[in-house]
């Protein structure tokens, strides 16, 4: 009798674990199916919302899911980033931190079609919107989502690693804080001159620090640089086509007055 009772308890526990894993309502797809679905949705939803890079990546942690009448909801923690070459490193140039999200899908044949991704409201309404969006059992994870930062960033960076391998290039992967940037004002240029150059629309795609940023345009790679020639007293902006080494554009300014110089 005791053994039979123990078996019943184990069966009940196993059923509870399956219910928790699959979500509530009808049987939701397993996490192995949900993960690529969520990854694709995050990239699709964010691809036009940030400064464009050479490579986009995402990270996510699925908290749970529910399926009702062909409508699938996935409760997750998400992260998105765009990567580009700056100072020779592959840097996350735009994107997000960890953001809780509820992804809604509808059955589309044998697959699921993304309907929307809902994110919490900013500011004072953040906590209340989390409580509204997430079932109680996922709420704590959504409210304390920063603990997932390293794991999601690692996932995101795996996209960057794959991209670097695909173009046959090695580079350190990092964030802006890893650049240790040096500004013109750090090197003795006045704030007035620096601000004047920042306002110059022609220089908008150049780095605002002393260093380089790379861009792909029509299949060609260009390196845009900002440098300070202290001996000559010149601030130099230059664009070089990477493969040929040809300079395609350059601007030179007096480091003291900010006046543009017409040099050969």
Q: Can you lay out the helices and strands and say which pair or pack?
A:
Elements: H1 2-22, E1 24-25, H2 31-46, E2 55-68, E3 71-86, E4 89-95, E5 99-108, E6 111-118, H3 126-133, H4 136-143, H5 149-166, E7 173-175, H6 191-199, E8 211-217, E9 220-229, E10 234-241, E11 247-254, E12 260-261
Parallel strand pairs: 1-2, 4-7
Antiparallel strand pairs: 2-3, 3-4, 3-5, 5-6, 8-9, 9-10, 10-11, 11-12
Structure in a nutshell:
Helix content is 30%, strand content 36%. It is an alpha+beta fold.
Description:
The protein has six helices and twelve strands. By secondary structure, it is of the alpha+beta class. Strands 1, 2, 3, 4, 5, 6 and 7 form a seven-stranded mixed β-sheet that branches. The protein has a five-stranded antiparallel β-sheet with strand order 8-9-10-11-12, with no helix packed on it. The longest helix has 21 residues, at 2-22.
SSE ordering: HEHEEEEEHHHEHEEEEE
Can you tell me the overall shape?
A: elongated
* Strand count: 12
Amount of beta strand? 35-45%
Radius of gyration: 25 Å
Main beta sheet, described? 7 strands, mixed
Number of helices: 6
**What value does the average pLDDT take?**
89
Q: Catalogue the unreliable spans.
A: 1-25
Between the first and last Cα atoms, what is the distance in angstroms? 98 Å
């Amino acid at each position: 009798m005791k053994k039979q009772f123990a078996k019943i308890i184990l069966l009940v526990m196993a059923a509870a674990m399956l219910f928790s894993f699959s979500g509530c309502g009808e049987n939701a797809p397993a996490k192995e199916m949900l993960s690529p679905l969520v990854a694709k949705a995050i990239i699709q939803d964010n691809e036009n919302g940030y400064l464009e890079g050479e490579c986009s990546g995402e990270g996510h942690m699925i908290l749970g899911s529910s399926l009702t009448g062909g409508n699938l909801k996935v409760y997750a923690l998400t992260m998105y980033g765009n990567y580009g070459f700056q100072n020779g490193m592959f840097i996350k140039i735009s994107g997000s931190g960890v953001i809780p999200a509820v992804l809604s899908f509808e059955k589309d044949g044998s697959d699921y079609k993304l309907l929307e991704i809902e994110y919490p409201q900013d500011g004072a309404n953040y906590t209340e919107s989390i409580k509204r969006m997430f079932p109680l059992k996922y709420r704590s994870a959504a409210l304390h989502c920063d603990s997932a930062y390293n794991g999601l960033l690692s996932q995101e960076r795996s996209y960057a690693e794959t991209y670097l391998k695909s173009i046959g290039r090695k580079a350190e992967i990092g964030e802006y804080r890893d650049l240790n940037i040096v500004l013109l004002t750090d090197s003795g240029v006045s704030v007035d001159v620096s601000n004047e150059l920042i306002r110059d629309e022609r220089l908008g795609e150049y780095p605002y620090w002393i260093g380089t940023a790379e861009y792909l345009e029509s299949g060609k790679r260009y390196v845009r640089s900002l440098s300070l020639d202290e001996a000559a007293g010149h601030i130099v902006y230059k664009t070089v086509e990477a493969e040929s080494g040809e300079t395609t554009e350059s601007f030179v300014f007096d480091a003291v007055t900010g006046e543009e110089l017409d040099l050969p």
